[in-house]
Amino acid sequence: MITVVGTGTSTEAPPVPGDVLAGAALVVGGRRHLDAVRLPEGAERIVLGPLAPALDAIGEYVGKELPVVVLASGDPGFFGIVRALAERFGAGRLDVRPGVSSVATAFARLGLPWDDAVVVSAHGRDLRTAVTVCRAHPKVAVLTGPGAGPAELGAALGDDRVLVVASALGDPERERVERVTPAEAAARDWGTAVSVVLCLDETRALGAVRTVAGVPARPDRWALDESEFAHRDSMITKFEVRALALARLGPRLGDLVWDVGAGSGSVAVECARLGAAVVAVEKTGDGVERIRANARAHGVDVDVVHGAAPAALSGLGDDPDAVFVGGGGRELPTIVTACARRARRTVVVAMAALDRVPAAREALTGAGFTCDGVLLQSSRLAPLPGDVTRLAATNPVFLLWGIRTPASSEGVAQ
């Protein structure tokens, strides 16, 4: 049997019951944990460093039916060692004694519930996912690591969030919980004591009563009717086109999506409702305000950039996972090429003009994308006098989509 003890955030002697350690043939943990407990006579100890050698050693003891104790910080079942042990030895061999996680402790220090928080780990992982989640959601906890701490997170975020940096949680002398702006976080050296970083939109930090914890539930519908968005003179991507565009874009939690030539921002808002972080690029001032109003009306965050593509694209930071191009005029091939050079996964282009289809298709294939498309032409039910119904045709729209092939991904900035 492998007994896994979560020591919580306390920096003092871990609360390990004596009966757990009694008879243990091997005790594994961090140096601080091992130094704080009295090992049984004859027990071997292994200081955790690289995980693979420790798992191999545990395997030798388990093979001989000898008891093993593993000491871990926080709750070892929450982004902790329980996963690796269960995968290697089977969950049935584990006796897990959980502690309080750093995430729960940090929110407790603020007096906030965290059932509606999204938790993302940047420890040993690409920081980009954590940044994108922080952009899209009002309450996020980020588990940090070397090269992915408060400074790096702050440097990648805008000023519409507050970072709460919790350091040395559980240490009565060194614990600190500090509210800072992203810019302030980026300008500091935070050392190695950071436990967790909370990224908050404080106007929405309390949140609503939840039934399902963690990641927000997907909306119950999408491809919303045009009437659910403010728009000018019906200049909006129609819901039939939007439905297929969303299916090809595949927006999801952790993704970054660009909506280029956003107009009313209907595609941008829908992508944000599905969990993605979104940047909408729009050249008209009234369009910018309209997009912001639509985002507010639907309770989502959309970063709106006032500028014309392709020039405005060079000022955008991270490369997007997916791009929707809904405008462009004569500049369309240049815009599609610029988007294709940076898109990690997909570019979707909507066009009303037949003449522009070949150039847009060539721009996608020239960038190494596999390209497909369809002409969408629909007729909607419309009432007539006398309580009868006719079919009212909508304008036909060409929808092209390019999917990046593995070979073409080598040129994308990582």
Automatic annotation (TrEMBL):
Pathway: Cofactor biosynthesis; adenosylcobalamin biosynthesis
CDD domains linked: Precorrin-6Y-MT
Domain Tetrapyrrole methylase residue range list: 19-184
GO BP annotations, alphabetical order: cobalamin biosynthetic process; methylation
Coiled coil regions in record: none
Domain of life: Bacteria
Pfam families: TP_methylase (PF00590)
Signal peptide: none
Record-level Gene Ontology MF annotations: protein methyltransferase activity
Keywords: Cobalamin biosynthesis, Methyltransferase, S-adenosyl-L-methionine, Transferase
Originating species: Streptomyces cellostaticus
Name listed for the protein in its UniProt record: Precorrin-6Y C5,15-methyltransferase
